[in-house]
Amino acid sequence: MDIIQLEEELNKIKERNRRVEREKAWEISWTRKIMVAVLTYIVVAVFFFYLRTPDPMETAIVPTIAFLLSTMSAPFIKKLWLRYIHEK
Fold this sequence. Notes:
The chain is mainly α. It has 4 helices and no strands.
């Protein structure tokens, strides 16, 4: 490989890294978490209306809060998994 080819490969790797960093930023962003929580709430509320559940709007809050709690605990659990399970 000559210098030009190496530079092209390096530029491709840098661009891929930028793309991966952007996608990771989206995955851990509060914008995404709130969007998914709102969509979860709407879908569950509609489902509970369909089932004629008492207080479907209030009841739909429970799975939405569960989702948010799971996303907040995920980084902690991931760190433990990486340290104690994946490294073995």
